[in-house]
Structure formats: structure tokens, C-alpha cells
Amino acid sequence: MPVPNNNAAFARKGSNVQKVPGAKSTKAATKKKDEEEAVETGTGWEEWSQGKALVRPPDQMELTEAELKEDITRILTANNPHAPQNIVRYSVKERSYKPINVVDQMAVHCVLEGSLVHQDSEEARKLRVKEGLAQEIATVDATAESEEEKAEASVNPIVDGGDVEETGDEDRPDSAVSRINKKEPKVTNQFNFSNRASQTLNNPMRDRICQTEPPPRSSFSATANQWEIYDAYVQELQKQEKNKEKQKGMHSQKDNGKSKKVMLMETQSEDVTKWTMASKILERTISQNTFDDIAQDFKYFEDASDEFREQEGTLLPLWKFQYDKAKTLSVTALCWNNKYQDLFAVGLGSYNFSRQGCGMLLFYSLKNPAFPEYIYPTSSGVMCLDIHAQHSHLVAVGFYDGCVAVYSLKEEGQEPVYKSTAKTGKHTDPVWQVRWQSDDMDNNHNFYSVSSDGRVVSWTLVKNELVFTDIIRLTLSGAVSEGTEGAQAPSIASGTSFDFHKQIDYMFLVGTEEGKIHKCSKTYSSQFLETYGAHSMAVDTVKWNYFHPKVFVSCSSDWTVKIWDHTINTPMFVFDLQAAVGDVAWSPYSSTVFAAVTTDGTVHVFDLSVNKYEAICQQLVVDKKKTKLTHVEFNPIHPVIIVGDDRGYVTSFKLSPNLRKKPKAKKGHELPKGPEVEVAKMEKLLSLLREPDQNSG
Amino acid sequence: MAGTGEGKKEEADYKRLHSFPLIRHTDMPEEMRVETMELCVTACEKYATNNESAAKMIKESMDKKFGSSWHVVIGEGFGFEVTHEVKNLLYMFFGGSLAVCVWKCS
């Protein structure tokens, strides 16, 4: 029978009666007739069937009334109609075919694998764990999503095979799910959503390390005992008492501040002495900075105009040295130090007979023109001084009152190391000149002095005292003769200057107030070797030439400067300088150059090899009316001269190149050096003079 | 009798005279020094019988004021050798028989 396979069970008749009670009558009628139709149509077709006219198909079975009323029962069972009812299986045990009673009646129509997982099962738990990790990333997205998702969230967990939102909104379910998972960790369907992840660029890491310096530490140790404490207190109290005594009005506080202050003061005084050296250096640097241009001139300036002036030279003024307390005194002596060529000594006193006061001995350095290096005040005016050639800390000084003294620059005090007194043979008149000599046979230092009392005395430094020896007595008419021949005691001449020969040690010259120059010997005390009638007035200075053994120069207040050869009685050269000549000095670098200073404030520099008759430089260095120049000295190595005047000033000058000419080299010859040249120079000059002398005389 | 009486008097005198705070050694700056000394004196006077409490008070105040890790020793008889941060040491006597040493070292 072509009955469609339907699981739906319904009894044809029965159902008709239940479903449509209203249309029972008509339905029942039709149903009975149209069995086929009733099966086909179903329940909802009552209206259709009512409106329709009954149409009998032509091939319908003709049934009798009785047959139509017959109830035919149909029973629907769950048995599978297609299942065979007589399955026979072969049983190996019985070795026959046996029918199987129980036949499997189930027919499978459709199989669909589901993916629901029970939430308490093992797999679900595993999934939850996995989901939990993924959630933490996803929850961030979840919060950003809008609240509308909630509605869909409730729908989505339901398994729907073909969900509409699947394609477009894959993110939403993702986030929605994860939001739910936040509250209740729900196992999510792995097919329904997908994770999307992305990684932004992480900046690379870098280590930075820093270590600060720990604060400095130091150790300290002490002991705290009762006796220590007691001692400390006692000490403190003592200090306090002392302070109270010192400053009576001081408010005594019970604190440690006082002890601290006392300590401070002590340390301060110590510090001052430490700074003398530093302050000295600083003073010098400041001086040099102040007088920087002068220092530059001193070192480097060479007067270019000398090239144009054929024979003349100039003196460039450099530093001026003055000392406040020496303003009233005049410079009576100048001497350069041989060892430290920037140091020179200045003796200050007074030439004025009536006005005699105290004197001073000052030492200046060219490095610090502002203030003297050493200051020694003296009771009587200094008339002369000399610095020992080898031991340059020893300075011999002659005073106006006739004393001689030796100062040592190494000593701290202001007193001389040795001083002569009336008992020890001091002069009775001013000492005009002192000169160191080479050490005697006992290796004692000794020096000579000449004075107006007519004595030339040798002083020896023996241990702590000065021992004097009269060398010679100067007389008017000659040497002292033995015995008293004449009734008149031989009158004593006054010595005003002397100088020792550079090479011949025992020979020396003495200039007198009368104008005579005597050549004497140390060994002969009674007689002069020679006497020159030099000047008409007192001989102020005699000086041997450094190079030529025979030549010396003398100057006098009679306005003249004379050059002599000691073998000849008459002077080689005579220069009239128009004013009283205070001092004359040979230059250490040339045998023919010397300088003279006059009371009219002029310095005259002569170079005999250049000009035999007049000075190559005559320069007014001080104010004419007020100051008189008293002394001049050449520096041993620098081309500098110092000039002292009667107002206590010492001025230094640089000699221009013309004044320091050396002999020019001839073609092909080497430039000769050394004293021999100088000697030869002088000799040449003298020989020219001698011949006419010989001729005339 | 009189001797002991006098002796006691001397002691009392000495205590009176020697009880002012005396700084034995310090390298602290002026302000810090004064403040620390005042603090020590206050602490010692407050806890005259209990060195430990006094030291505790000093140490805690110093820590608060000047930074951590101060060490304080108070006593009448002890010797010590310590390493301290420079400019952070005070060693003083007080009360005639008490010695206080305060230093910082982290």
C-alpha cells in the first residue's frame, strides 16, 4: 500500500473526531467516503472541503452501504514495517540456522553529531582553563563593547547551526562571551567565535645603572673613663679662668664656644708666618704686573734710533726705587750683589756736616721695585758699603761716626754681626770707603777701610770680633818717617777713596782730600809707591780698570775726570764736566766705557774707543735744581746702571746699544772675545797718547 | 669625720663645677653641633637613671632630624673605635661623669 512513511501516529477516524468537533457531520461523511482524501489532506482543510462540491473520481471503488459502515481498525505500532520479521542466523554452536526472535526495530533516519559538553565533565573543565587564559586578553575588548551585546549573548550560546550573525559579528560574540565568562567562567563554543590578537611594537629595553659615591667616612676612637672626664673638665675650667683673666669684661658662658675661639686665635697667628713666603712672591708678581712695561723694556727694549745716531747713545729710565723713611737722606753708597745680580745695596746718610742724623742700609731687588727687600736702620749715616764677592750675605759698612760694621743678610735681626767701637780701633772721622779683600791665610774674612783720619785700616773677622790693623797712615808731605825729625808732627792727610788693583792684590790707590792720589802697597806701611798730583780738590773716587792692568780713573769736585796710566805721572785723558763730579765707574763689559755723574743731575757716559774727547751720552736724569747725583754703579751682567741722588732715590737706567759697543768683526776674522780684547783696545789708545807724550816730553 | 665631710663637699663642688656639657671632639658643622648637644643634654637629664632610654631618645631624634642610621653610646667607662661619616660625629662629656658618643654610619 502506498502509505507514506510517517512517524506521526494518528488514528484517522479518531483524530478527525477530536480536532474538528464543529464540522463533524460533514467531515465524517466525507471522510468515510474519501479515505484517501482524508489521509492526504489533514486537519486544516475543513473549509476547503466545505466549499467544494463533492466530486467523485470516476475510478473510485463502488462499495456497498454495509461495506461503507464497516469499521476497519488500523493499529499503528512502533514496529518498523521494513524490518524483517524472520531473521535467521547461523549458529556455529548448534550448526544450524536459527531464527532470531528479537529483531531490531529501530530505523535510523538521521544522525547528527552534537558538540554540547556537560559543564561538569572533564573536558569542560579543560576547556574552561583554556578559556580562562584567553579571557584575560579578551576582557579588555569586552569592556569596550556596548551593552547591546548582552541581548545577543543570551541567544548565542544556544547552538545554532546556521546563525545569521556568524559572519559579520564574530568579534561581538567573542567579547560578549568573555564578558559573561568574567562572572561565570563559561565554556565557550570553539566553533562559534575566533580569537584575534595582535602585538604592537614593544620598545626595546635598556639597562641604566648609576652608583653614587658614598659619603666619606673616617674613624675615631677614644676612651671614656672617669679620669678622662675629670681631666677634661679641669682643663676646661683652667682655660676659662685664663680667658677671664685676659678679658675681664668678657661674659663667661658655660659652653665650649670659648675654648674653640681660643684655639682659633692661636692657629691664626701661626698661619701668618707661613704666608710670608707666599705673600712675598705675590708682592713680586704684583710689582711686575704693575711695572710690566718697564720690565719688558728692561729685558727687550733696544733703542732703535741708535742706529741713526752714529756715536751717541741714550739712557732709558727704568725703575725708580724709593723708600718713605729715607726721603731726607741722600744716597751715599751703591753696590751690586755679585751672586744675585738683581739685588743691590743702598747706603743712606748725609754729606752735610752739620745735619747728621741716622742712616739706613737698604737692599732692593729689581724684581720688586716698590719696597726694599731688607731694611737696616743705623744710628749714624752710612757713608760706604761693600758686598763680599763670594759670600754675598756679608756686607761691610762704614759710618759717618767712624765705625765700621759687618751685616749678615742671613741673620734675622737688624743689628750688625760685627761692629767696631772706640776700643777696637774705629776711625775718628767718617769712613769714606770700605773694600772686602780675599780671605787671609787663616781663612778669615777681612776688609779695608779708609777714612778722613788718614788711616787705612784692615779689619779681620776673627770669630766674634773685628780685629783691626793699621795699614798705612796718610800724611801730607809723604810717608811717615821714623823718628821726630821735624818739630811739626807730620800732618795727616784725609783719605777719601781707595781702590784695590784687580789683578795685583797688594797694590792699591788712595785718593785724598787734598787732591792727591797715592799708590800704595799693603806690605809697605811707611812709604807710598807713587804719588800723583791729580786734582785741585778732594778726590771723590778712584777706580782701577777691570781689564787693563795699568789704567785707573779718578774724579773730583774740581769738575774733572781723569784717566791715568799708573806708570805715568800725568793723566792720559782729562774730561771737564762742567759740574762737580760725584762718582765715576768703569763698565764691566768694556775697558773703554765708563760713566760719571755730576751734581747738576747729568749722567755722562764715555767710550774712549769711540770718542776720546767727549761723552757719547750726556743725559739729564733728574730735576736740575733740586737733586744732585751722588753715585753710579754698573750692573755686572745686565746693561743697567743705577744712579743715586741726594734725595734718597735710586733710579735705574738701561744703556742703549751704542753705549755697549763691542769691537766689530773684520771680514774673515772671528769676533774676538774676552778681556784680552779689551786690554788691547785700551793699549791701542794709550800708545797713541804715549807717543806724542814721548815726543813732547 | 671632717675629712670625709670635706671630701663630700669637694665632690659635690666638683660635680657642680664639672657638670656643664663639654664637647671633647666633633667635626659637625656649627648648627648641627649645637642642636645635637642640646638634644643630648635634654635626653641625659630626662633619663638620668637609664642610659638606654636616653640613648634611644637621642638616636630616634637624630634619625628623624638628620637622616637614618645614627648610633649613640652613653656611659661612664668605655673605650671605642668607630667609623663614621665625615662631619657626623660628636663626642662629649656631661654631668661630671657621663660620656656620650653620637655618630652616623649607614
TrEMBL record, chain A:
InterPro entries: Dynein_IC (IPR050687), WD40/YVTN_repeat-like_dom_sf (IPR015943), WD40_repeat_dom_sf (IPR036322), WD40_rpt (IPR001680). GO terms for molecular function: dynein heavy chain binding; dynein light chain binding. Residues 1-46, 159-184, 239-260 are annotated as: Disordered. One of its GO terms (cellular component) is outer dynein arm. SMART domains: WD40. Residues 162-172 have a biased composition (Acidic residues). Residues 239-258 have a biased composition (Basic and acidic residues). WD repeats lie at residues 532-565. GO terms for biological process: cilium movement; determination of left/right symmetry; outer dynein arm assembly. Pfam families: WD40. Keywords: Cell projection, Cytoplasm, Cytoskeleton, Dynein, Microtubule, Motor protein, Repeat, WD repeat. Transmembrane segments: none annotated. Its main location: cytoplasm. It comes from the Eukaryota. Consists of at least two heavy chains and a number of intermediate and light chains. Interacts with BICD2. Interacts with CFAP45 and CFAP52. Interacts with CFAP53. PANTHER family: DYNEIN AXONEMAL INTERMEDIATE CHAIN 1, DYNEIN INTERMEDIATE CHAIN. Part of the dynein complex of respiratory cilia. This is Dynein axonemal intermediate chain 1. It comes from Haplochromis burtoni. The lineage of its organism: Eukaryota, Metazoa, Chordata, Craniata, Vertebrata.
Automatic annotation (TrEMBL), chain B:
It comes from the Eukaryota. The keyword Coiled coil does not apply. InterPro entries: DLC_sf (IPR037177), Dynein_light_chain_typ-1/2 (IPR001372). CDD domains: DLC-like_DNAL4. The keyword Nucleotide-binding does not apply. GO terms for biological process: microtubule-based process. One of its GO terms (cellular component) is axoneme. It holds the Pfam family Dynein_light. Keywords: Cell projection, Cilium, Cytoplasm, Cytoskeleton, Dynein, Microtubule, Motor protein. SMART domains: Dynein_light. It is found in: Cytoplasm, Cytoskeleton, Cilium axoneme. Force generating protein of respiratory cilia. Produces force towards the minus ends of microtubules. Dynein has ATPase activity. Consists of at least two heavy chains and a number of intermediate and light chains. Belongs to the dynein light chain family. This is Dynein light chain. It comes from Pundamilia nyererei. The lineage of its organism: Eukaryota, Metazoa, Chordata, Craniata, Vertebrata. The gene is dnal4.
